[in-house]
Amino acid sequence: MLRSFWRATLLLLILGLSLLALATCATQPTQGTPLFVQQLTAQPGSYAGREVTVDGAYVWRPGDPSLSVLAVGVSTLDNGLDAQPIGESIWLEGFPAEVTEHLHRPGDSVYGFVRVRGRFETNGNYGPGGAYRFLLTVSSAEPIERIRRVEQRLANRPLGPDKVSFFELLRNPQQYQGQRVTTQAYYFWNSIIYVLAEGISTEEDGSSPQPVGGAIWVEQFPPDQSALLTVGPNNSFVWGLVEVTGTFQTGGGFGKDGAYQSIFFVESARPVQP
């Protein structure tokens, strides 16, 4: 999958570099005017030990202690995963968790435009392994862009003769162990995760989809049917409501990192209108 720059980040990058050039050639920003990340990293001595307000791209990877930074921008894969900061970054201490609820959350990371206030330091050796030259100890933060996600979920209803509802498979997996069953669920694929899920959550523009609710790992989903579903740029993700027939197994240890209780081996599949 190709990497793509977050469009809004490009605007921030261009605007920030323009402001930096003006600030360098003319005067320092007036008191109370938010700075940009590149202003701090290009002239750290001018702001060392001071309380500053700075606009930038926050990038955080839950479970990875080496990435909680403020950067000029962020790049991601086409499916929104693997967010990486652009340019030299500032290590953040104390970023408020509640702010992350309003940012992009594709599944493996959190990122978005924020305005951060705090004390800026430039002595180096910050963050895990002392990998960062700059530190911002956060006193407050707010999102500049608030991201809203929308969900599509299965209706919990009988599917008709000779079919098993997805909720029934989740509730009583042992009852269907090793059996050939037909069910309906949301299929989701992003090259890392392949599941049948209770629902799908996306950003309002349809980007950064991820499964929600109960999920069953899936194998052997037919590619010709994937092409009839919602397909992301450069085939970076696939999702849609489907009816599948295949063999169901349970007992744990399936899928990525062995994290799934059950698995479904697909024999046939077809799209279903929600």
Question: Characteristics of this structure?
Answer:
five-stranded mixed beta barrel; 274 residues; 13% helix; mainly beta
Walkthrough of the structure:
With 274 residues, the protein is mainly β. It has four helices and 16 strands. The protein is elongated and about 75 Å long. The protein starts with a strand and ends with a strand.
Distance between the termini: 29 Å
Number of strands: 16
| Spatial arrangement of strands, main beta sheet | 3-4-7-9-8
- Give the overall silhouette: elongated
Helix fraction by DSSP (H/I, runs of at least 4): 10-25%
SSE topology string: EHEHEEEEEEEEHEEEHEEE
Report Rg.
Answer: 23 Å
What structural class should be given to the helix and strand makeup? mainly beta
Oligomer: single chain
Sheet-strand content, in percent, reads 35-45%
Largest sheet: 5 strands, mixed, barrel
Count of alpha and pi helical runs: 4
Low-confidence stretches: 5-30
Rounded mean pLDDT score:
89
Topology of this protein?
Elements: E1 3-5, H1 7-25, E2 35-36, H2 37-42, E3 51-60, E4 68-71, E5 73-77, E6 84-86, E7 90-93, E8 110-121, E9 135-143, E10 149-153, H3 166-171, E11 180-189, E12 194-203, E13 210-219, H4 223-226, E14 230-231, E15 238-254, E16 260-271
Parallel strand pairs: 2-3, 7-9, 13-16
Antiparallel strand pairs: 1-5, 3-4, 3-8, 4-7, 5-6, 8-9, 10-12, 11-12, 11-15, 12-13, 14-15, 15-16
Entry summary:
By secondary structure, the chain is mainly beta. 13% of the residues lie in helices and 43% in strands.
